[in-house]
Design a protein that fits this description.
The chain contains 28 helices and eleven strands. With about 800 residues, the chain is α/β, with parallel strands linked by helices.
Length: about 800
């Protein structure tokens, strides 16, 4: 094939051509093999530019790929740097994808559809009917030129593209944009997130499936200065869809393969929620890509980034959400509450609602109170809050919203609605079933305590340089200070090793009670200090988030969807980590035994024989424990496989999946680590017998030490170095003991989700709206000023 020959002459790999041209490796491979019959001339031009072809080679390549069957010239020469031609109407799906990648794309589409259908139903978007969300074309300065949006060549006239529509037609509007890039702008609470959910579902349910799977990403957590967009997208796919950790056709994960094959349509929600200093860099990074995407943002924050970057989102059309109208309120709010008995409405015998008087006042000549309320109820967020406080709470009269003395401004009305939301939803009867269909373990019906815990979580998301939105169960340990986390690990591992030593001693040794108690009392703290030191180093090098949830599960099968042979690099990394941690534990164990011997015999710690013996034991124990841990953790990779597609679809599912994984790891590690220490120690001692002099270490000693190390060391590893162990130690024990979280935080978070305070975004929770998060965090800091950091991110200093 001509394209392959031209690439070989340029001395470029397919990956290098893909990087230079922006065309996926999959497309280049199909073009070279001749299996592509639906390419675009814009693709040909991009490849020609990447290969640096002259005019004749360009013509030959165009003729060949056009299917002429020869390499002769064509009538219309291609310009040196042409723009892709416009594609009217919906994009034509590309050639079908087969094999594991096609299966992964279908599974991803199914999971995205299931997840957002559930979320839309949970938010009661259709109860009683969707609140109208409309838009208008975005201002000219915030969108690219029509010629660029339609990807026209020089001198071509852009056609008029109608971008008007409402919630029911958002996918249709998107498909009218040839570039496939769209910016959705709107005020805070204007319905952008609900619109993105409907967009994803409509695109997935279209009669002709779109060639890309729309996946909603909360872009507020992206730091473009440290992470490339591709890597961040892959990381979020792995977090929210752990089954995509399976190996793809070319050795990468399925998540990476889907992104690289351009089979994922990123729907980037919440550009305005990024740190102010990162928005310009983020926009420039997005402008460096050519892939289709959808971006949502508040208008002012996006406009500021456009001014800083001197360009809007390139090739992107734009729409701006408009306000809810009074007619919308008249049609919506009365239907959200039960009608009062006949004769108690407007006096005509027709059933009325508590909203009738309020809506009548809003229709009448404006008063200051009416104008303020009319201003507030122009966004879906405030309408939903008003519905929750007055339509769904018995005994509440919405007429109080017209009290100009109590609410002198629109801001005071908004704060009232935000402040009343959590108490209102927690005064309701506890939902009977949780997200998994089970009976809730603990009712959280105390509004004051629930608001305090939620406020603490909202405050926890504040950082000195930025604010996060994700409430992830594996990050709740960050509520504990770093010294306190290390102390918790030291105490927990000391207890585990002490109990393991006592248990093994009682069952397998003839030691007396006093001697056994002394040995455990010395062994436990030494192991705790060793584990605490390694934990502190690992956490510091990991930036405080070193322990992510496992994306694998243990299986006795040798292979699973092509993942039977783990890369050598995985074994090497695991072996190195186990070698270091095991060596530290072994050295601590040797020091403890030396101290115990000195106390039992009355020997001075400075005695030369004792020091030489201690150094020898440290070397031997370090080698024994280190090699055993390295070998066991390296071999454990052979039993790992990605989680199933049906697992870890929710925070509760991910927690349950990790609990199962850690339990299996514990059951696997205890016997294997015990045997590895026992028999490995015996072999190492025999090898060092002549070099280090006579070593008194029998097989029985190896088994006893191996049993203590296997049981106590594995339990300590689980608590200190797994996400579920940190959850158990910090979120289930430490934080509840200090009153900063309830005793069942997972049930509390799920309960808050069912009540509508939180929403689910993949494997994490988020507050229903960033305005609610800001309000709860600010209220918590006012009540607890000792928790307030010295400064706040810029986004929090200018009001909601």
């Amino acid at each position: 094939m001509l394209l392959r020959r031209l690439r070989d002459e340029a001395d470029l790999t397919q990956e290098q051509v893909a990087e230079r041209s922006g065309v996926s490796v999959r497309t280049i491979r199909r073009l070279e093999s001749g299996t592509s019959t639906n390419h675009r001339m814009g693709t040909v031009n991009l490849l020609a530019d990447a290969l640096g072809l002259g005019e004749q080679d360009r013509l030959r390549l165009a003729a060949t790929l056009a299917g002429s069957g020869g390499e002769g010239p064509v009538k219309e020469p291609l310009p040196a740097n042409p723009a892709p031609v416009p594609v009217p109407g919906p994009p034509v799906p590309g050639p079908p994808v087969h094999g594991p990648l096609a299966d992964a794309a279908r599974e991803l589409a199914t999971e995205v559809r299931r997840r957002w259908r559930h979320e839309e139903a949970h938010r009661r978007v259709h109860d009683p009917f969707p609140l109208p969300v409309r838009w208008q074309p975005a201002p000219t300065g915030l969108t690219d030129l029509p010629e660029n949006i339609q990807r026209l060549g020089p001198g071509e006239t852009p056609r008029e593209v109608d971008l008007g529509g409402d919630l029911r037609s958002v996918a249709e509007v998107y498909l009218r944009i040839p570039s496939g890039r769209l910016a959705i702008l709107g005020r805070a609470g204007s319905g952008k997130s609900v619109l993105t959910i409907r967009f994803a579902l409509d695109l997935l349910d279209a009669p002709v499936p779109h060639s890309r799977v729309p996946v909603i990403f909360s872009i507020g957590s992206w730091n473009p200065s440290t992470t490339a967009l591709r890597d961040w997208l892959i990381g979020r796919l792995l977090r929210d869809h752990p089954h995509l950790a399976a190996r793809g056709p070319h050795g990468t994960t399925l998540a990476a393969a889907l992104v690289d094959a351009d089979l994922v349509l990123p729907v980037l929600d919440g550009f305005d929620e990024m740190a102010e200093g990162l928005r310009r860099e983020a926009l420039e990074a997005l402008n460096a890509t050519a892939s289709p995407l959808v971006l949502t943002s508040r208008r002012d924050e996006y406009a500021e980034a456009v001014r800083a970057a001197h360009a809007p989102l390139v090739w992107a059309g734009g729409i701006e959400l408009t306000d809810v109208t009074l007619d919308d309120l008249v049609g919506y709010l009365p239907r959200t509450t039960r009608a009062v008995p006949s004769g108690e409405g407007d006096g005509s015998g027709t059933p009325g609602t508590p909203w009738d008087a309020v809506l009548a006042r809003l229709r009448a000549p404006q008063t200051p109170a009416g104008e303020g309320l009319a201003t507030v109820l122009t966004t879906p967020l405030m309408v939903i809050l008003a519905r929750t406080l007055y339509s769904e709470t018995p005994g509440r009269d919405p007429s109080e919203l017209l009290d100009a003395t109590r609410f002198p401004s629109a801001r005071s009305l908004e704060e009232h609605l935000l402040a009343g939301f959590v108490p209102a939803v927690y005064r309701r009867r506890t939902p009977e079933r949780d997200a998994t269909g089970r009976q809730p373990r603990t009712p959280y019906a105390d509004p004051a305590r629930a608001e305090r815990w939620l406020g603490h979580l909202a405050h926890h998301l504040v950082r000195l340089d930025r604010e996060r939105q994700d409430v992830a169960w594996w990050q709740l340990g960050d509520l504990v200070t770093r010294p306190a986390r290390t102390l918790a690990v030291v105490l927990a591992t000391a207890l585990c090793v002490t109990l393991a030593d006592w248990l093994v001693g009682l069952l397998l040794t003839p030691l007396g009670i006093a001697e056994l108690l002394l040995q455990g009392a010395l062994m436990g703290p030494a192991a705790g200090l060793a584990f605490g030191s390694v934990y502190a180093m690992a956490e510091r090098t990991g930036g405080g988030t070193a322990f992510e949830p496992a994306r694998v599960r243990l299986t006795l099968r040798a292979t699973h969807r092509g993942l039977g042979h783990r890369p050598l690099r995985t074994f090497t990394v695991r072996f190195g980590q186990g070698l270091f941690g095991g060596a530290v534990m072994g050295i601590g164990c040797a020091a403890t035994l030396t101290l115990q011997h000195a106390l039992a015999t009355g020997t001075s710690l400075t005695d030369p024989h004792l020091v030489r013996s201690a150094l020898t034991d440290m070397l031997v124990f370090g080698l024994v424990f280190g090699s055993a841990a390295g070998l066991v953790f390296g071999l454990m990779a052979a039993l790992e496989a990605p989680v199933d597609v049906t697992e870890a679809a929710t925070p509760v599912g991910l927690l349950s999946s990790n609990r199962t994984t850690v339990s299996r790891q514990f059951l696997f590690l205890v016997p294997t680590f015990t045997l590895a220490i026992a028999f490995g120690g015996h072999v190492i001692v025999q090898l060092l017998q002549g070099t280090l002099g006579p070593l008194t270490w029998g097989l029985e000693d190896s088994l006893l030490i191996g049993a203590v190390g296997g049981l106590g060391g594995t339990a300590s590893y689980v608590l200190a170095f797994t996400a579920w162990g940190q959850w158990l130690l910090l979120s289930r024990l430490w934080l509840p003991l200090t009153g900063r979280l309830p005793w069942h935080p997972a049930a509390f978070l799920d309960d808050a989700y069912r009540r509508g305070v939180l929403r689910q975004t993949g494997a994490v929770y988020q507050f229903r709206h960033v305005r609610l998060q800001h309000h709860l965090g600010s209220a918590f800091r006012r009540r607890h000023p000792d928790f307030a950091p010295a400064t706040y991110p810029p986004a929090l200093t200018g009001g909601p």
